[in-house]
Recover the amino acids of this structure.
């Protein structure tokens, strides 16, 4: 029997406790992961289903979380579209050549995931057979992927991306259109292989004003979530620094909205309304220490989340590298125990 608590919370059904998982729950904070990385590069792990499945499962047994997230990277489909890139230590995905021209965009291939990324789907099928919690598939959202492709790598100010968006909107739209078509195909394939939910990481979209978000990004996000709807799995949409965009996020059609730590969860609930589940939002830095301060912040988030059905506890962004494993073990237990206690008191 699979633990359904995470999926129930996504659908805003009542649960006995608040489910929890962590963005970047598989990674360098784990000694076991670092050991595997001595032997394989990140992209090699992604390409070997046995190893990739092992890395995906590790945090589930180690931390006791209520969901697994496929181990991969948002940059993986960029290679399948025909562009060379590398994931550099402490930097992130870096392109061999940035994507700037009409020709660059025309050459991008909208691939068949079964042909171009069979190992991703094989990993999912392998995991499906023995996971005791639901598996979350994922992809980078078009803006965030485009930011890596157009800038050529990580960026602080997204100058090239914004220039393309504002100065050559036709070019921007053709890039977004291709990335959107690719993303829908990729996520549909992940769900068909066995993913029980999918998350769209729009990590850097908080760099946009609400007006630009609505004009240049919202229409493609609507398309993605609309085109996934018939598969009837919960969809999650997350970005960093997106407090001012939360209301717009509710128009995308995502079932669950991810919130970073800059907005108190009770305020996020006001902006999002009652028709969506909420995921978040402990400051990842608060997991570096444990004790009274972390506990108080965690309880505040749980209390705010419990007021309405549909809260999934998470960090406001990925687990930081220097996080001690036992802090996340303790945090997971605290979320489970404290939320179960509050919920049983409310019922009485
Ligand atoms: O456990 C999980 O969450 C699944 C694995 C996962 C990775 N990347 C593995 C990874 C997920 C969900 C991602 C998504 C991802 N990748 C995002 C969206 C989430 C976010 O954090 O905002 C982004 C923006 C990327 C791009 C990327 N890849 C960055 C910024 C980095 C970090 C660079 C560094 O060295 O600090 C990567 C590399 C990466 N992807 C690592 C992991 C575990 C760490 C480096 C390694 O193991 O070599």
């Amino acid at each position: 029997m699979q633990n359904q608590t995470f999926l129930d919370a996504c659908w805003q059904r009542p649960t006995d406790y608040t489910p929890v998982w962590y963005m970047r729950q598989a990674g360098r904070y784990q000694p076991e992961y670092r050991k595997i990385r001595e032997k394989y590069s990140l992209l090699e792990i992604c390409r070997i289903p046995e190893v990739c499945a092992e890395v995906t499962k590790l945090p589930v047994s180690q931390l006791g979380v209520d969901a697994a997230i496929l181990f991969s990277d948002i940059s993986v489909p960029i290679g399948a579209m025909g562009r060379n890139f590398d994931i550099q230590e402490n930097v992130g995905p870096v392109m061999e050549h940035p994507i700037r021209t009409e020709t660059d965009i025309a050459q991008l291939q909208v691939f068949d995931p079964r042909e171009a990324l069979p190992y991703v789907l094989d990993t999912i099928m392998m995991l499906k057979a023995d996971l005791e919690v639901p598996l979350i598939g994922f992809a980078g959202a078009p803006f965030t992927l485009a930011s890596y492709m157009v800038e050529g790598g990580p960026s602080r100010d997204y100058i090239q991306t914004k220039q393309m968006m504002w100065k050559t909107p036709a070019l921007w739209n053709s890039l977004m259109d291709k990335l959107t078509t690719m993303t829908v195909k990729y996520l549909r394939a992940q769900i068909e292989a066995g993913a029980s939910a999918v998350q769209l990481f729009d990590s850097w979209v908080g760099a946009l004003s609400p007006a630009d978000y609505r004009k240049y990004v919202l229409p493609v996000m609507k398309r993605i979530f609309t085109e996934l709807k018939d598969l009837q799995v919960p969809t999650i949409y997350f970005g960093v620094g997106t407090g001012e965009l939360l209301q717009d996020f509710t128009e995308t059609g995502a079932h669950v909205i991810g919130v970073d730590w800059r907005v108190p969860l009770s305020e996020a609930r006001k902006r999002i309304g009652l028709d969506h589940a909420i995921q978040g939002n402990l400051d990842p830095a608060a997991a570096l220490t444990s004790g009274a301060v972390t506990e108080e912040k965690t309880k505040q988030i749980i209390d705010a989340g419990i007021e309405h059905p549909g809260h999934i506890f998470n960090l406001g962004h990925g687990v930081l590298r220097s996080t001690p494993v036992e802090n996340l073990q303790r945090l997971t237990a605290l979320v489970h125990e404290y939320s179960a206690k509050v919920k049983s008191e409310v019922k009485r």
About this structure: Residues 5-347 form a domain with the TIM Barrel fold (CATH 3.20.20.210).
